[in-house]
Every structure is written in C-alpha cells, then in structure tokens.
Amino acid sequence: MKTQHLLYFIPFLLHTMTYSQELTETEAKDYTKFVNPMIGTSKMGHTFPGATTPFGMVQLSPQTNFQVMFRDDGSYNPETYEYCAGYQHKDSTIIGFAHTNFSGTGHSDLGDFLVMPTTGDLVLEPLKTETDKKGFYSSFSHDKEEASPGYYKVDLDSYAIKAELTASDRVGFHKYTFLKSDKAHIILDLVYNIYHYDTKNIWTFIRVENDSLITGYRETKGWARTRKVFFAMAFSKPFKSYGHKKYDDIQYNGFYRKFNEGENFPEMAGKDIRAYFNFDTEEGEEIQIKFALSSVSSAGALKNLTAEIPHWDFEKTKAETKAKWNKELSKIEVTTMTPEDKITFYTALYHTNLSPIIYEDVDGQYRGLDQNIHNSDGFTNYTIFSLWDTYRALHPLFNITQPQRNNDMIKSMLAHHDQSVHKMLPIWSHYANENWCMIGYHATSVIADAMVKNVGDFDKQQAFQASVSTANVDYFDGIGDYKKYGYVPEDKNDASVSKTLEYAYDDWCIAQMAEQLGNTAAEKEYRQRSTFYENVFDASIGFMRPKLADGSFKKEFDPLDTHGQGFIEGNAWNYGLYVPQNIEHMIALMDGKKRFSDHLDQLFTMTLEDKYIENNEDITRDGMIGNYVHGNEPSHHVPYLYNWTGDAYKTQSRVRMIMDTMYGPTVEGLCGNDDAGQMSAWYIFSSLGFYPVTPGSVDYALGSPLVKTATLQLDNGKKLNITAKNQSKKNVYVSKVTINGKLKKGTSITHQELMQGGQIVFEMSSKPNKN
Amino acid sequence: MKTQHLLYFIPFLLHTMTYSQELTETEAKDYTKFVNPMIGTSKMGHTFPGATTPFGMVQLSPQTNFQVMFRDDGSYNPETYEYCAGYQHKDSTIIGFAHTNFSGTGHSDLGDFLVMPTTGDLVLEPLKTETDKKGFYSSFSHDKEEASPGYYKVDLDSYAIKAELTASDRVGFHKYTFLKSDKAHIILDLVYNIYHYDTKNIWTFIRVENDSLITGYRETKGWARTRKVFFAMAFSKPFKSYGHKKYDDIQYNGFYRKFNEGENFPEMAGKDIRAYFNFDTEEGEEIQIKFALSSVSSAGALKNLTAEIPHWDFEKTKAETKAKWNKELSKIEVTTMTPEDKITFYTALYHTNLSPIIYEDVDGQYRGLDQNIHNSDGFTNYTIFSLWDTYRALHPLFNITQPQRNNDMIKSMLAHHDQSVHKMLPIWSHYANENWCMIGYHATSVIADAMVKNVGDFDKQQAFQASVSTANVDYFDGIGDYKKYGYVPEDKNDASVSKTLEYAYDDWCIAQMAEQLGNTAAEKEYRQRSTFYENVFDASIGFMRPKLADGSFKKEFDPLDTHGQGFIEGNAWNYGLYVPQNIEHMIALMDGKKRFSDHLDQLFTMTLEDKYIENNEDITRDGMIGNYVHGNEPSHHVPYLYNWTGDAYKTQSRVRMIMDTMYGPTVEGLCGNDDAGQMSAWYIFSSLGFYPVTPGSVDYALGSPLVKTATLQLDNGKKLNITAKNQSKKNVYVSKVTINGKLKKGTSITHQELMQGGQIVFEMSSKPNKN
Questions:
Q1: Three-class SS of residue B197?
Q2: Which residues form the Glycosyl hydrolase family 92 N-terminal domain (chains A, B) (predicted)?
Q3: Lowest mean pLDDT: which of B70-79, B449-458, B740-749?
Q4: Does the beta carbon of B200 lie under 8 angstroms from any beta carbon of chain A?
Q5: What range defines the domain where residue B263 resides?
Q6: Domain assignment of residue B124, yes or no
Q7: Is the pLDDT score of B490 beyond 60?
Q8: Does the global pTM surpass 0.90?
Q9: What total number of domains does chain B contain?
C-alpha cells in the first residue's frame, strides 16, 4: 500500500477509524468491528467482501463484472485475473450474488449460483441484451455498501432494492427489500462462472419442487475438471410464476416439445440456463432466500438447509454468525499503536479463517476425489488446499489458533490421498478435484509441522506412508527424474530449480516424520533427498541455477528474470534462497554470512527493470521492495533470513517495513493475492514478533512485533501474553526478549515456549541491537 | 415375414431347425435351445442378439455400425432408425460390444461402454482414421456367430479374435481369445452412443485403479436428458500399458499440462474420450473382462461386480444365466405344429423378459428421477417403461407369468411418481429420466389391470392417488384442454384424436381403480371422462376426427393419412377404432356390427397407396396387411374386434394369419419394432388363444391358438393346460371352447378362469363357427 493509495482512500479510512475509535472497553469484545472484509478487494488481493462463517462452505458475495478469459479476437484478457473472487472495488455495477468464492487465490473457479433481484421488464442477460439494452446488472455505490464478518449489505440502485446477505456454514441467507412492483424478479443465473464465465458448464439441472422451493445442481469443468455442486433454494414468499431460458445450442433427443418448457414448467436442464421467479411486491416488502449447498446431492442440500436455518429470522442467523466470528477472532486479543493497525490485524486474522472450507453435509457425507460419496468418520472434511501457499504460515498458524481444525484438515488430506488414484496427498485441491496447480508436495510440510508440534490425533504412521507415497509418484512433475538425477533437469521439466528446492524441503519434512516415528531407514533416505538443493547450486556464480540432464548448468541464465530460468513465479535472487531445512548450509554455499547479508540488502534495495516484471500476474510493483517480492509466496521467509547472518536487526526493520507498506486497512491493503490466507498469516505471525521460516521444525524466527500487546487464548487452556515494551513506529528494533522473565538468547523461539503460555516481552528500541 | 424372406433365410432356418429337431424329450427341458436372439435383428425388429439375464441391467451386445442422425449436409439419415439396438443383421462389421441396449424400441439411446479387442498397431477410431485408414472395426460373418439366451459368440475376423459374452444381472462378462501378439489391445470407447453417436456425451470420467481394474462413469444428454451410468471394469490379466485420446475440443483450466496425460496416467476425464489397454498375448490366450454397471456410483458398480461375479469362471456365469432363462422360459411349455413355431414362440417369450430392466445396485440403492440416490425398500426397482407400447399386452402378460415382477414394476412407477416434480407416473421413462415419448398416461392401465386381477401388494390407494395426480397435470400434452373441452382440440395440440381416445381409456382405468376402492365420486368423475371419445367421433363420416377448439371438426381430413390428421403413428382407419373401454358403444356409434365388421374387412384387404406410408418409420409394408398395421401398436387389438360384431371366426382367421405372416423364426421374424416386448407379448397371448383387448378389465378376447398344447406354471402354484384339439395349419377356426370340461359361451374368458388352472380345450376346425 503506497502513500498515494492511502490518500486516495482517506474517506474510507476515516469511516473505519470512526467506528473503531468509538469503541468502549466492553464493546471491544466485539472483534468483528475491527474487521473490514473490503481489505484486499482492489487490485491483486483477490479477497471477497461477502458473507461467510469461519471456514464456511458458503461464501455469499457480490459479483461485480463478467470476465471473459479470451476476447473476441482470441487475445487473453488480463482483466480476468482481477476477478478471482468475483469482486473488484473499482467497479460500479453488481451482476448478482454468488454462493462460492475463493479468498485471495491467484487462479480461480467457482461463482456458483448467481442470484440477482430485479424489477421492471424481465431481462435475463447480465450485461446487455441481444438488442443491446441494459442487462440485469445494477449500479451501486460504496456509500451504500457495508461489509462485516458474516454480513454484507448494498443498495442495488438500478432497482432501488436493498440487498442483505448473511450465511451459516452451508446456507446463504439473502434478504431483498423491494419497492412496490408487479414486476419483481429473482434471477438464478446458472451460466455465470468465475473465470471463463460462460464456457465452464457441463450441465445444470433445476427442479421447482413447489412454489417456494427449488433444487438442483451444476457441473463444471473449470479449474476443477469434474466438479459438482448441488443446491436447495427456499423463498420466503411463493413466486407467482417462473421460467427459464436456455443459452446453449444443445439439441435434445427427448420429447420436450410437447410442453412450453420455458414457462412454469418445473423441470429445467441444460448446459447454460438462466431461471427467473416473478413476484408482486409491496413497498418495503422483504423477500428472503435461503440457499443451501451440498457436494453430495440436492437432497443433501435440503438437509443442510433444514438443519442449519429452520426459520426465516435473518437477524438471528446474522447474529449467530457474528458470534462464530467473535469466537475465532477473540483467540488473539491485541492492542496496537494505531486504530488502523488493529483493523489490518483483525482483518488479516479474518482472512486466515476463510480457507480451507468445510466440505461435507451436516450428516458428514461428502463427495470424494473418486467422485463417490464418503462419510467423514471422526473428522470434519475440508477442501480448498492451496498448499504451495498455505504450508508456509497459514497451517503453522492453525497449529496455534486452530489445532483441532488443522487436525481435521490433515485427516481430510489423508482421505484425499486414500481416494486419489495416484495415491497422492493434495497439491492444490478443491471440490473433490485435484487441479495440480503450482509445485511441490507440501502436504508433507503441513503433516510434519503438526507432528513435530504434537498437534492433533491423526494417524501418524498413515500420514507418513501417504507422504512417502506422494513423494514417489514418478510421473508427477519430474519426481522420477528428481530421484534419478538428484535434481529435476531443466531440459526435462520446466521450473526445475523451484521443483528441486521444494521437493528437497518436502523430503526433509518426510525425514522429520520418519524421525518422529523412529523409522531410521526412511529418515536416512529422505535426509539424503533433502540435500538435493545442493545439486542445483552453481558455486561459480553463487546462484541456484537450472541444470540439464547432462549435468551441465543451463547456459543462458539471468538470475533477475522470472521466465524460463528454472523458477516459477520468482527469480533466482528471491526463489534461490529457498532451503528452509538447512539455512546455515545454504548460506555457507553462498559464500558465508556476510556475502549472504549483502545479497539480502541488495535484494531489498536494487532497482529492477520493468522488463523483469512484465507479463507476470503474481509479481507487481505494488508487492515489491526493490527486487524483493512480498506480493508472492516464494520470498515470504526471506526477510527473516538475516537472523542467520548475524544481522537480526535487519530482519526486524525489514519486517516492520513490510508490515507498514505492504499491508493496510484499505481496499488496497493487500499487496498481492492473499492466497487463501497465507499473505495474512504472514502478517499475523510477524505482528506477533515471530515467523515459521521452517515448518516441520519447532522453531520460529524472531522478528519485530507490530502489536503493543497480544493475548493468545491457546487451545490447551493457557494464555500467552506478548508485550512490546517501548513500542512505537520508530522503535522497530528488539533489544531483548524475555520469556516468563527469563532472557531469551538467539533469534528463534520454539513452539513449546509459545504453548506453555505466560509472558513474552520484547523490549523495543529505535537502535539496532547488532549482537 | 414374407415368403421371399423365408427363402432368403433358408440356410439360417435349417440351422435353427436342425438343433431343435435333434432334441430328445429330456433335453427339451432346456428351453433356451428354442430361443434365437437373432430374431428381429433385421430391419425394424430392433432387437439385439447379445447376452443378458431376464430383465437384466446389462445388455451386452455387438454394435455393427455407427449411425449419424444427421449427415454432413444436414439431412436426416434414415439409417439411424435401424440401429435402435445397435445391431443390424445385414452388416458385416462389428465395432465393439456395448453394455446397454434397448430391446425393440422405436427411438433410442444407450450403447454405453463400447469395448473392442484388437491387435496390431493401435487404432482408436472405429470406422476410419484421420488418415483414412481402416478403423478398429472388425469384419465378421454370421457363420461364426452364435447367440442364445445369456450368451453370444462371434469371431472377429480382422484380428482372429474369438469374442464370447455372457452376463449376470449387473455385470457383463467378456472372454476374448487372442492369437500370439505383442500388440493386443482392449479399447474402451466412451464416445460411442446409440443414436447421435458422437453428440450425446456430457462428461466421462475414468480412473485406472490398478493394473487390472478401471472405474468411471458417463453422463449423456440424449433421449434421457440427464443420464448417468457408472461402471467398474476388471481385467483377468494386468495390462502392460494404457492411455487415452480426447476427441472433443474442450479446453481445461486446470494444470494437467505437467503430465503426459495421454499415456499411463491413471485419471482421464472429458467429453469424448477413448481409452486403450495394451497386452502381450500368447497363442490362444484368453483375456476376460467383467464390466459392472450402476446408476449410483462407481463404488456401487464395484460392489455389484464383486457381489455377482466374484470369480473368473466364464462358463459358470454362462450356465447360471442359462438356468435363469430356463426358469423364466419354462413357465410356459408348449407343443407346436412345427419346430419353427416353437422357436418363434420361445423367442417371443424371451423377448417379453428383457424389459423393463432391474435398475438398482445389489444393495437396493438406485438413482431416482430427482437424481438423488434412493433405496428400494420392499421392492426391486425397474426402469425402461415404454408404456404406450407395453400396457397393451406385455404388462397383462406379466400378470400371468411375472406377477411378482409386475408388482415391483408398479412400485417402481409409484416411486417414479413420488420423485417426479410433476407428480406424474412414468410416460416413457428410462435411467432416472422421463423422456416423454408418445402419448397417454398408460401407467394407469398397468395399475388398473393389476388391481382388477388382484396382482401384487402395492398400495392401491397410493396408486390410485398417483394416477389421479397424473391425469390432472394440466400442462401435460393437452390434459388441461382435454378436461376443459371434453377433447383435445387439434388446433391446440397435435395428434389430438389419439390423445383424446387414449386419455379417455386411461380415465376409464382410473374409474376401475376408484370402483375397486369404493370411491364412488372419483369413479363417477372418471367414468364421465372415459366417454370423451364420443366428442371426437364425426357421425357424418363415421370416423374419429380431429375437432377444433370452436367445436367444429377439422375441415381437411383424410382418414387414410397418418400425418396431420389428429393421430400419431396411425390413421383414422386403424387408430380410430380405439375405445377398448366400451367397444359395444364404439360399434354402435359406427353404425353397428355389420358396418363395423365390414370396416374391419376393408381394413385388412384394401390397398393402401404408397403415399400413405412414406416418411413413416413405424408403418412399413413389412408390418401391414392391407391397411391394417401390425407393425405398430395402435392396431394390436383390432383383429380381436370382430368378436364384438358377431364375426368371431374372422378374429380367429385373422390372428392366425397374423401369427403366420408377421412373425417367424428368422432375423426378419418381427414385422415392426418389438417395442420392449409388446409385439412379442401379442404373439404369446395370441398363440395361447386369447388376448387382453381391454387391460383394466378381467376379460380376455378369445382368438385362435397357434400352439397344439401349452402348460402354464402359474405363480399361485396351479397349472393351466391349454389344448388345441385337431390343431393344424388349416384348422384356424374354433368350433368350441371348454374350461375344465364345461362349455364356454361367448367370445371371452376371464382372468379368474385362467388363474384357477385346469384345462382349457379349443376344438379346432377348418370351418368357421358363425354362431
């Protein structure tokens, strides 16, 4: 977040400041007031402002535009990328409210079941009609928009409809307040998808069960190749008539011609259809909708609907969801230097409670990766595992704030493994599909981290075996070659250095598990594999560098370039510093601490030419400091690496600088994709003064806390108080750390030291402690 | 079957005669020897020669050609119609063996999971490759082909592979005997469909679970608009490698690019894909496949596979299925005048045991019309209800030969009603879909017939309510207008006379139910509705005639024409005689018995101009006698109507003539679509000497038996013996009938008289008994 952005958003900032400053001590127990779901809804944050419960299956959120991935001339439309969560704050129109949205991802899918209330002559096309008239979208303004955890409100100006949304775990709850009209409509648009909006549908199916209940499903072939979502949609008031229009050109061979299928015919099916439901409304009349999801069946969705919201009391559900949010947000109580910081903090905490999502019906049934229906026995099933992002800080954070959920998430990953025809743990999975996005097999990190921190009761032996199985699927993304050559040869598989580095780290995680289980043979094997990073280090230039199958390094090599240089979404300057399992040795390889510290200094201060960041969605100036890229994950541990060079004070100042400049309480408050909470988890950890540089170990690197104080309600019943003495915007340096009164030496802290509770005191200073 | 056809098929006939004549008395207990599944596989019979159990879910049968519904120039390809069951006897090539086939229908679908063994260089396109080379089809000859109940064998000459097929209820069992080859393949073609072969797929999904087990599913949008079929495919020998090719142009948004998805990658999905599995084979080596189906899930299919065929003993399954067939076929033991008649008879009996099919997993789970998974509680669920055809004689036959199954079929129809969003009983339903084919709501007839005959333990009140609900879905095919005007106005709905006549009959069936239940108000209401046929009778011309909403008859009217004259698949001459619920009154309307008998004489003897049978798939010269159309259902009761005119002897000679000329023991032995067994059921009844002209009443019209003797093993434990004394090809007239020695007066017999068992003796004569 740059100064210019701050200025631009002062009105909004003042608005959020106002309510936070008004809070009295007792009101302060409502932490949702410090959450602004609008943060990150501009540019690259890719967050959504809509209503959801913590880790809820429903994310009911406004969609502000259609995105075509390819324009009419076949060219790629870069705008697509902005709409990963369906909403961009810059927009002034809303096309409806969809029930599924990713939070912060860098690729997308979902957008299921777009609902839009309108009045007047029925228009069924969202943007413009065939005759070039206005589509069903509405204009709106942010003045008449409100977002808080579990609640979203907006005035749909084109129709003078007030729209309010809340949600339970599996049910979206809509409240639309109409003017008097004999032409009020609720549109259910099944054509709309996020990304490739009109090309992803496989099939849709709707039944009008009675005059106020609809059921059905949609199948899509998007990022998830074989995805099915079922629904049940209840109206608070019977519709007077209804119908649908088909937007595909599929010819049926059935005998539907004997009906007017389009109007008041209670069975609709096809690839691309939009349905509508007509009402008469009185001035100020509310029409409410409960919209339940299921991965299993429409019967499952109906079960979820009935179980979760058996009433029509919108305020009751809103209040219950708010309470759920306060339960999660209250786990870390902070005081901050500024009201803005508190908003940034609690919004980050909010963003770490959105993914993965619950993915099972109220009775525990869920659709598995094999597309069969399974029952979660002894756990809650979760989906949306953006693991290349979230293994870094989000799952480690869960080991502190959400150990029970993280345990369930690991069990969900093990179920995924069991259902996987590859016998692999998830890579990037959502909605009973593996989308294979990004690299590595970082589920092993999540498992190892929980194992060494003694979190959960998942079957450790099973988890270890699943990890070993995953690490030996030779046809997966160069693993066979990695094992054969000791590295992924660039001439056989691109992004070969990134893959080698990450596989080596993941293998170290497996070795950590093996050690825990006393399996010395496996430990030895995977410790050996964890050294493979050495094989892609070119000592002659001091950089990790792509190597070919013949053992030679790739000739043309630009360590500043992010394309074709053996890395994915990063360059050698950043991504080449990825050996979290053996940082000392990496630094030694790279000519020692001094040289390494200089490299980091240069990284943060150098000027990168434009050509290096062109055509790169994940690396933009907004998220960069010099050549350091905070806007994307490969660098997230980098500011903490000074700790290993003897220059811990540089870590302290860098992380404070990053927190101040890369995060903020405005719509542009995320400098890159939040990536299912990883970006926010970095902020939570760093704000508290430590960061899990090496998940799978019990150590956290110490940084510089941003908070004045923090109290963590730990799952073991203990409390951990963190105090930053002499905290100020200038006092970014830590002169000493005490744990329960005892001086802490070194630059790290262990999980045990956190979990035992008590007092951690950082003494802050404006002067670096160079010892 | 015309003389010329008999001559043409003498070699085949001799073949079938040979084995039937060789039978000794003990061997005769094997009734399957009298069944030739090839009957009806030529021209319009639309039967399939492959392997199935009685009412089995799997119909594993050769497919002899691809059919494109529309040619490249957009014109309709009439050849499509010939391939409703995938096989035409005239063909000399086979493209594989599919697991689902309708028997005898006049429209089509299915053809799921085409399996083809080949050798040599892999070819994945069935007809010709992109480079115009030969496709994977094989030539074959009927000399090397064998078909019997539950077993099919053919030599695939192009590859010197012997193919053998058998089946259990839910599992197809393949045995392929190869020559020595290091390029042996089993192709699983998921593109192939019957009708619209390459345009019906919605999605397909395959998992290679291990080196000898595949699972997956296919979704199609054909005649059944939203159809899902799941499978599990086990190989007796591990394949050495495998792969697939995609034939659609769908782009995924996932990240599959990191694999070579085409080869040895165990997860395949897409719209149109063909998979292959490679083997080395020794000379004479058998590779067997067990291929299980499910409507529920691939897990369900695997369960079916394991439960039904836990071994690899092909002969055992073949023998078990043969025994199942003998159990059904032995229910009617006949002696006939000629060996050919016996083959025709038992093949007809076989054809009445193919539809509807079992539609549930071994554990009772099945997919319902609402696409949710249901459990059949207290019944076996069936699908494929071609009710416009089968209510006439097939379901009445079931009330004698398959009362328990008919009871389950009615319960299946009631479940369909409960799951129907329209709250309608099935019209023409298959695979959890209503395809709305043809007219009327004849499930009411099936229910009424079972009710008056006291068959089954289905809930009569529920069945009545479901019938009433069905008869009052006003938006369905003119029902609202029918109720309003007392007829379906032709200017509002085509085929209006057919609909009026059939609704009136169906309403009479509901009245019959109401009477049974003592519901006098409803009885009165539906008796009233059952008279609506009167409203479309034009006394001025003596024909049923389309009436307009204004009460006038349609001006241009040609009672010989089948197009646009108010009838569907029939003309006024035939179809206008459809008042089975009150034949006396219909005859009275039509100027009395003499005039009516003359009408029938003319019908059978007149010469119909070619123009009247052009562009009519269901009405061809093969199935016609004069203007009488035996090849399609609307006329099936007509030959029996002489009984009501005092000229019963004409019924006797006509039905014998029809049995002799419209049926036979050759591939052309069906003169029109067998229509899921209706055509064959007509033959069974008529052969035994009686026919259910009015299902829903207990009466059967007496005709002229073709058999010499018949013994029916009734479900109530009794035996019914039918003897035709002095039976001969010439003695087609019945001079008297005795039941258990007592002279039977009149021209009908009751269900009770049949069910009490004992002896019915027809005394045959060459001279008509005109009294």
A1: coil
A2: 34-294
A3: B70-79
A4: yes
A5: 39-320
A6: yes
A7: yes
A8: yes
A9: 2
